[in-house]
Write a structure and sequence with these properties.
There is one protein chain. The longest helix has 19 residues, at 198-216. This protein has helices spanning 29-32, 86-99, 134-140, 145-160, 198-216, 223-235, and strands spanning 2-7, 10-15, 39-40, 48-53, 56-62, 77-78, 107-115, 118-126, 131-133, 163-164, 173-176, 181-183, 190-191. The protein is built from six helices and 13 strands. It is of the alpha+beta class.
Length: 237
């Protein structure tokens, strides 16, 4: 079960059986700067750090805007109630995905700071030890055809269970030392009732990201790799 509370103007959400009861200060990145294990996580829009909560590695991510609207407000969103905030929705989506046996990080806590008609927010998840992004992996290693096929199967499984990832790219897919894949960052994701055409958008997004990153830093990525991924994806249709 989930537990909602309030601490220092922060609406909190975490599992009621959690061993560590979180408070508002746990979601302030400044709090962790002089603590063991602190590190800034590169990539994305920024706003993410790695830290240790009672020796457990965690990722703390602030919700930041992108695009032109960020010039007006970098980290504020319109308040429509807790259940409509980005961390509340991502938290429940992660919990549902884990209940379906999907390889996503465990959500540890979410915090929303309301100020009038707007809010700021952050989410805390477990750090996936021994992983790196698919983009970083391909910069130094070759992923064999079998594992591209496996990645296609994972994406199809994710979507067949109704999970729509709105930013599926090579930096939101992780791989560990045993070539196990994980999917991260479900901000703005949704649970869909059925497959339609939405699933292809995610695939095109991933393909474009691989091509874009390959131009920035040469990746061990070929057209045959994408075909192996699609073979895996379509084998379970």
């Amino acid at each position: 079960m989930n537990q909602e509370s309030k601490s220092a103007r922060c609406y909190l959400l975490q599992d009621e059986n959690a061993t560590e009861k979180l408070a508002g200060f746990h979601f302030d990145s400044q709090y962790w700067r002089d603590k063991p294990g602190f590190a800034i996580v590169e990539g994305g829009r920024g706003g993410s750090i790695k830290a240790e909560l009672n020796a457990q590695p965690i990722i703390l991510r602030q919700y930041l805007r992108g695009g032109m609207i960020a010039s007006l407000s970098k980290d504020r969103y319109i308040w429509l109630g807790k259940s409509h905030t980005r961390p509340w929705r991502e938290w429940h989506l992660l919990k549902a995905a884990r209940a379906e046996g999907l390889p996503v990080p465990e959500p540890l806590g979410a915090c929303v700071w309301r100020s009038g008609l707007s809010y700021r927010a952050a989410i805390m998840t477990a750090y996936l030890e021994g992983t790196e992004t698919l983009a970083d992996y391909l910069a130094h290693s070759v992923l064999d055809q079998f594992h591209w096929h496996q990645l296609g199967l994972l994406i199809r499984d994710l979507q067949r269970k109704g999970f729509r990832h709105t930013d599926l790219n090579a930096n939101n897919l992780l791989i560990d030392q045993s070539s196990q894949f994980y999917v991260i960052d479900f901000d703005k994701g949704r649970r869909m009732k059925k497959l339609d055409n939405w699933q292809w958008t995610a695939l095109y997004r991933l393909q474009r990201s691989l091509l874009k990153i390959d131009k920035q830093k040469t990746l061990n990525y070929r057209d045959d790799d994408w075909q192996a991924l699609m073979d895996g994806y379509q084998s379970s249709l």
